[in-house]
Amino acid sequence: MGIAPYIIVSSILFVCGIVVMIARKNIIGILLGIELILNAAALNFVSFTKFSNSNLDGQVFALFIILVAAAEAAVGLAIVIRFFQIRESIHIDSATQLQS
Amino acid sequence: MQHLLDWILWTPALGILGILLIPGKSHNVIRFWSLFVTAVTFLMTILLYCQFDPSIPGMQEYFSVKFPWIEQFHIYYSLGVDGISLPMILLTGLLFFLCILSSWTITKSVKSYFALFLMLEASVFGVFMALDFFLFYVFWEVMLIPMFFLIGIWGGENREYAAVKFFLYTFAGSVLMLVGLIALYFVSGENADSFNILALQGGKFGAMTIKLFGADWNFGKIVFIGMFIGFAIKVPIFPFHTWLPHAHVQAPTAVSVILAGVLLKMGTYGFLRIAFPIFPEAAVYFSQGIAWLGLINVIYGALCAMAQNDMKKLIAYSSVSHMGFVMLGLAAMTTQGVNGAVLQMFNHGTSTSMMFLMVGVLYERSHHRWIVRPDGTKGFGGLYTQLPIYSIVFIISMFASMGLPGLSGFISEALIFLGIYKTFTTITVLALVGLLIGAAYLLWMFKRMFFGDVNPAVVEYHDMNAREIFYMAPLCVAVVLFGVYPSPLLNMMKASVGSLVSLMAKFQ
Amino acid sequence: MEYSLSTILPIVLLPFFAFVLNSFIVKKFTKTAVTISCLAIFVPFIYALRIFIDFVFNKYSADYYIHKTFTWFDLSSGSQIFKVQMGIYLDNMSAVMLLMVTGVAFLIHLFSTYYMHDDPRYGRFFVYLSLFTSAMLGLVLSDNLFSVFIFWELMGFCSYSLIGFYYEKEGAGNASIKAFMTTRVGDVFFLLGIVALWTTIGSVTYVDIYKAIAENSLNSPVFLFGLGIPIATFAGFCIFMGTIGKSAQFPLQVWLPDAMFGPTPCSALIHAATMVAAGVYLSLRMYPLMDAGGLLEAIAYIGGITAFGAATIALVQTDIKAVLAYSTISQLGYMVLGIGVGAYNASLMHLITHAVFKACLFLSAGSVIHSLHDHHTHTAVQEMPRMGGLRKKLPYTFLAMLFCTLAISGVPLFSAFVSKDRILGDALVMATRSSVYLIPAILGLCGAFLTPFYMFRMMFLTFFGEPRDADLFKHAHHETLSFNRNIPLLILAVFTLGFWYSGSLTGQGIGDKVFPDSKYEWFQVLVEKPVLSKFTSRTTTPLDVPERKEFIESSHYDPERGFASEEEEHEVHHIHQMGAIASIIIALSGIFLAYCMYISKKFSPAWWTTTFSRWTAALRNRYYFDHFYVDVLIQKGLLQLNNFLAWIDMGLYDRYAVDGWSKVLTLFYSMSRWFDNIVVDSILVDGTGISVRFFNIVLRTIQNGKIQFYFLVLLLVLAGYVLGFKPVI
């Protein structure tokens, strides 16, 4: 089994993430889309490491990505909550201004 | 005493500070304070006269004041006095003092009136004392500001028009002067003497040329013409004279007095101090033209005066005529002519001031100045019967103005004629016609106002009061004294005038 | 007698100080002021008498003079020298003039205390009188033309004030202006003459002018309007114009008749002692200049025309003062004629004799007028048709006036017979020598016929016959002898006798005692034409140094002088005798004609006036001179010109040429406002805004702040890039 299936999966994941990011109007949905993209990237790292050489760089990067994704989700959710408190909405089009 | 000139110049300015501290409601305090300030100034001018050494031809070193003001451009605060400016300074001191007295009846915003009046005095002194061209120009311009407001606020019914006209007219002249001043600065090398009136004198610019509109011109002549127009507007010389009747008619009495008595002399003083000695070649070159302009002034002013029905306008035109004599004397550039001109400047200052003051005295009673009203009825009539003291003072001022021997105007006019006869014989003959008409319009005015039956409107006028007599008396004395014994004035000026005449003679 | 400050100056200074003092005290202390005035002329009279006696009895020759100078003011500085010197010049002519002026003026002062006593401005009249007299005395004592001019003008001022004395009257105002302005026309020329001489010679003292003429330095031409005129002619003409103005000669005679608007004593002063005499005096002083300038013929013509013309106008006057006024002009014409024909001495003599009898005539007229008071109009009456028969009421006045009338008529034994006939005789002598002088001589003789006629017409109408206004006559007061009314008249009347001045018909008179060796009368010896060559070497003394003794002693009169040859002397005497006989006949026939017309009524004056009605109208209108000057020259000419110029100045020049600038500026500023509003502001400035707005709209649609949109764009761009399109931005 070659590398292609891994790439196809991660591409599907990536495109799903992009589509979610562009199409969804819900900020949380967009955050989820970002998570999908991150995961697609993490899958790519791991699969390329496995098929190219024998070190663990890809796995380590995947771990970092998980970590960053967690942190990002925390921060992003916090912003979304704050945003909701101000605008009473998590609709993305209500966030066109850089002021409250 | 070395700083006497400073004191004379700045005392009125300090007086303004004093006025600012007085509440605007206490009119009498302001009046007495102004009177005090001008009296002190006048006394200081007399002190200056006493300490003046008439034998020195140029500037009196003893009184000179000079220190840098704007060093980057070599502008100095530099004051001085010589025999030509001293009579003017004395005249200024005297007339401002008397004018404060005659302004006693001003009731409209007293505080600002007197403040502006003192400002005017300071600037006039500045013009007569300045030895730095830039300083001269600054004072010349500063003088316009109080004049503008004094005419524009306290004047007659058409005051805004007259004030604006006066301002713009004079300002147009000063602009030409400013151009000349700057041109001189650059031409003379932008050094420490470039604004020094005394150092610029002596015909240093006669041979220089200037490129203008693509052609070469004589620098001296071009700048002389510019300055001539600047000063001519002030004198005023025909055809720059028409602001004068408006300004005189609209101005309040005291301002008319200052305007005719002092400010007109600034123009001729400018010729004597600046235009002639700095550009002697050009002055000699144009002397024929200046003399003809002076002649036109003499005759044209007199003829126009005869047609006037408004007393002030009549006297305004008579000033045009009399200043024409001054220009004739200046154009002659002879000892008699220039001495006569300077003397005439002083004498016209006293006699015309008397005339204007007399009109003011009458105006306070009648509230009009018509000799003959526009509808053809007499404005006055029989004043001689009604106001005997007034009539006598009026006769003195009238005859002084027309140059009756024994009163001051005669000697100066005779000297001027003596001065111009040799160079301009035809002009002398024609100028005498002006002398003839000069008597006619005054006597005719006198006849229409003072002779005949008493006009019913005149009956309730009261004669001159003590204050009015008090401020007319010094002028009467001056007019008679300098008519009988002109030596004090002539001795004062003759050395300075002599040096100017010999400077001019070198270029003839 | 020593001539120093204290013996000469009081003559002019006392009346002047009286003037100064009185002008302050006159209101409160009228009586004191009047007394001061009278004293201040009486004391100079004493001084003048002393000087006169000294000059006459010490027999100074005519060209002896005392000349003292002081510097009035000095303009010298460095190399330019210019001094104005004033001074005193005293010779026989000034001595006799001083005596005449002070004497006549004193009597006029005295008479004025009577005449003006009830006037509300009694005191002020004397203030003017003092100034007037002092000005005249100053003029007589002057050593140079400049100070003559100063006093000359001062007299003009005094005459102005005195003629306008009754300022309630409109006419007084007109008359005073007329007098002042007419004489000023002459004065202006006079000043020009002074200036011309001063610039040429460097001084205007008599002595220096004579010197310059003697040295022939006045021939250089004056260039005037491109014409070259010799300076002597030019200056002489200008100075003679002064005489024409002041002495009321043709064509400037119009002011003198109007001068009677003043109080009568002032008329006496103007007509006799002061004002008009000054003009003739000046011409006498400047005789050498006019001679050098070749002006004598013209002067003779002016004098002849004036003498005759004024006499004709006097024929039809009904106002007693107007008759006298025209007789003054006529007599002044004789004096000027005398100057023109070279009768230097006779001219001065006529000036003196005329001053005496004319003062007396005017004062007598004043006495007549004062006694006639119209109770209806409350005015004094001056019209002769309302008088008549007054000799019974006013015997002393009549006597004085009769003497003067005889004198002015040229009746033998009286003064004008001597003086006027010498002028006419010289005119005849000149006429025989040169036909140019024929017309002036004939005019003079015709005038000599008219003078007795109109003077006796006045006498007959006033004093003889029946009173024509009975009411007026009844109210006229009887004259009593009083010191200030009749005595001055009688004193003056005494001096109208000829023997005071000459002895040509009565033996040598007083002249015999004074000049025993002389072939001539004393007056003829007293004054003669200046001998110019004698003036070239004289010096002056300062004011405070008395005259040098030896100079005085060397200057006595020379009895041996006379004509060039016996034949000439004989011929001249012959003509003079003929002239004297002719003028006696003429005078008597004039008187006889007046007698026939007005006493015996043989001829009716009405016949003349109706037959020659056009001439009479011309005479009544003074040959239309006043009409011409006032209505044509001034009203139509000068005033229209003035109004026109004033209109040009304010209505045209100021309104359009000066204020026109504001129109030009308005045009400029509306143009620049348009440019500014439309081009600069609307298109350029606002256009920038609009373009920004446009881009704003475009950019705003892109820059919508929607993160997904940005992301989409990003993807599209990326996709485009991948697909091979270059990005636009």
Structure description:
The complex is a heterotrimer of chains A (100), B (508) and C (729). Chain A is built from three helices and no strands. Chain A has 100 residues and is mostly helical. Chain A has a single domain (4-94), classed as Helix Hairpins (Orthogonal Bundle), CATH 1.10.287.3510. The longest helix of chain A is centred in the last third of the chain and has 31 residues, at 57-87. With 729 residues, chain C is mainly alpha-helical. Helices cover 68% and strands 5% of the residues of chain C. Chain C has a three-stranded mixed sheet with strand order 2-1-7. In chain C, strands 3-4 form a two-stranded antiparallel sheet. Chain C has a two-stranded antiparallel sheet with strand order 5-6. Chain C is elongated, with a radius of gyration of 38 Å. Chain C starts with a helix and ends in a 6-residue tail after the last helix. Chains B and C meet through helix 10, helix 12, helix 14, helix 17 and helix 18 of B and strand 1, helix 5, helix 6, strand 3 and helix 27 of C.
Q: What is this structure, in a nutshell?
A:
The complex is a heterotrimer of chains A (100), B (508) and C (729). By secondary structure, chain A is an all-alpha fold. Chain A has helices spanning 4-23, 27-52, 57-87.
SSE blueprint:
The complex is a heterotrimer of chains A (100), B (508) and C (729).
Chain A: H1 4-23, H2 27-52, H3 57-87
Helix pairs in contact in A: 1-2, 2-3
Chain B: H1 4-21, H2 27-51, E1 65-70, E2 75-79, H3 85-102, H4 110-129, H5 133-142, H6 144-154, H7 159-187, H8 197-200, E3 209-212, E4 215-218, H9 219-234, H10 243-250, H11 253-278, H12 280-306, H13 311-332, H14 335-366, H15 383-386, H16 388-402, H17 408-421, H18 425-450, H19 466-484, H20 487-505
Antiparallel strand pairs in B: 1-2, 3-4
Chain C: H1 5-25, H2 30-57, E1 65-74, E2 83-91, H3 92-115, H4 122-141, H5 145-163, H6 170-201, H7 206-214, E3 221-224, E4 227-230, H8 231-246, H9 255-258, H10 264-273, H11 275-285, H12 287-292, H13 296-314, H14 320-340, H15 344-371, E5 373-374, E6 379-380, H16 395-409, H17 415-433, H18 438-463, H19 470-475, H20 486-494, H21 511-514, H22 522-526, E7 541-542, H23 549-553, H24 566-598, H25 605-611, H26 613-620, H27 625-658, H28 660-702, H29 707-723
Parallel strand pairs in C: 1-7
Antiparallel strand pairs in C: 1-2, 3-4, 5-6
